[in-house]
Records
---
Amino acid sequence: MRTETYQKYKESFNLKKRLGYGLDGDAYLDEFGKVVKISFFYDYDSNIEKRYDTVKKSIHYIMENNPAGFVKINSFKELESGYRDFIFDNEKVRQKYYIFCYTMNKGQELNSDERKLFHALLRGDDFSENYKEIVKEFSYLKFNTKKVYDFIESLKKCPIQHIDLGTNNIMRFGANYKLIDIDRVKIKE
């Protein structure tokens, strides 16, 4: 189903180049130099409506408030929803799904020194509390210390939490670091 769906939307949105893929979808470059992420949500725990609603609310919050630690999201669109036949434990079941997309600005990948630093800083779904000490330990690497601090502090203040933190989901936009791949976010409690 995903391959046919990607092809359909790739043609209708005039998407030029596939930039990457992940568990929840694929990212493409459009004709205007923006990144279009086409995302799939499948029901695997009978909680799909809540998960989808949380992501929609989070994306709209990011669009409206442009928090410093997240990529600028330009648009969001629900593409389709429905049910698909799915084989689970040798039985055919109906599985609900949602397909949506959002456009965002294109950033630059982290350099190798930045990747090493952020890898050391990440702890589960958040940054280590002693992040300033870790940054000092890595001061021999090439990165902008102030911008790293600004990035982490902005995320700590933001009511949206990214729950798939990893070096692949952090990019540089000019001198600033920002999170991408907004499919896995939640509102902090």
Note: DSSP finds five helices and twelve strands in the chain.
---
Amino acid sequence: MINTLITSDTSQTVLEPATIKVAIIEDRREIRDGLAMLISGTEGFKCTGTYRSMEDALPRIGTDLPDVVLCDIGLPGMSGIDGMRILKERFPNLLLLMLTIYGLAALPFFFGGLVITFAIARLSAHLNAVYASDLIGAAAGCLVLIPLLDRLGAPGVVLTAAAPIVSDGRTRGGPPIGR
């Protein structure tokens, strides 16, 4: 899953990073759209679909099957827990991750962990330095996150984390957003 072999002819082989496809099932539009923007704006990830409810997701999610599904627990209609049982029956290899409002504040650490995992896979000769950097970053993140959660609450923390991206008005070096 880390690399995809691409060959244009028999004399040259190039390894390119694989893209991790993610679908989001979340009833709150601002959270759903924010996660989709974060995921699609992160190199190596692609948002394959956003769904307001499990009833919306179940018939459509298989058209561009993701590798990972981020799903809210408290959805209108069918709960996320019940719907994920159905998804697991239909797609046994699908990685299912449950979201709660406080779980959203941990998403930067989740993606940071994925980046570190890929870095370790590629930089095994420098494993000690990579691991030490990961530990220092995680500790610093926790020291910042806990007071922010107390003061702002989880939605406020997510919006605060997204503010530098939105204020810059750019994604991945592309043209300004909304201009």
Note: The first strand starts at residue 3 and ends at 9.
